[in-house]
Write a structure and sequence with these properties.
four-stranded antiparallel β-sheet, single chain, 0% helix, 13 strands, mainly beta
Length: 200
């Protein structure tokens, strides 16, 4: 029997956690922080602080994904005092650049409460395996779930029963999955303990 553990304490959203009221300095924006400080990957936000329409400009976020591998994402800029949000989850952000100047307009760059742990990729020693797991609420008031993947983490699917939870829960996988992780939509601490049995 193999045991796996995922522990995370997701922080709350901070719309200016990476840069607060920052103006363009070629080729982008000087960040004051590079992560949310919780060792999890968050969705990244860019808020426009002026009425200017920057939606024709491409903002590029560069950093690392949930498992620490390099990744980038391109976003259309904000149209006025609105927020644009990444689709990918970033554990770190090393730079935010833009393909043309935004002049003296300033932006807040931060993260949402939506976060994920890194993927755990169990390696079964037999052709069929079962996974039983328990998610223990550790601290705060988290809203969390468990997700699985079949394509190296490109696509995430919500677990059939453990999703949008606010209390400790348990669940199972009775069919093979390539990997699984925790995801949060509200801040707080959760630990997942998983036990895997391979049947020969």
């Amino acid at each position: 029997m193999d045991r796996f553990q995922i522990t995370g304490v997701s922080v709350a959203l901070d719309a200016a956690g990476l840069a607060d009221g920052i103006a363009y300095v070629d080729p982008g924006y000087v960040l004051t922080a590079n992560d949310a400080g919780d060792d999890l990957a968050h969705l990244i936000t860019i808020l426009g602080n002026a009425a200017t329409n920057h939606s024709a400009k491409t903002f590029t976020i560069t950093g690392t994904g949930p498992n620490g591998f390099a990744q980038t994402e391109e976003l259309a800029g904000p149209n006025g005092n609105v927020t644009v949000t990444s689709v990918k989850y970033f554990k770190t952000v090393t730079s935010v650049t833009v393909d043309s100047t935004t002049g003296a307009d300033t932006f807040d760059i931060g993260w949402t409460a939506n976060s994920v742990s890194g993927w755990v990729f169990p390696q079964p020693s037999g052709p069929v395996f079962n996974i039983g797991f328990a998610c223990i609420k550790d601290s705060g008031s988290p809203t969390y779930g468990v997700q699985q993947t079949y394509d190296n983490g490109v696509t995430a699917f919500n677990h059939a029963s453990v999703t949008n939870e606010t209390t400790s829960q348990e669940g199972t996988y009775t069919s093979p999955v390539q990997g699984y992780r925790l995801n949060w939509t509200a801040a707080g601490g959760v630990t997942l303990w998983a036990y895997q049995v391979a049947l020969k």
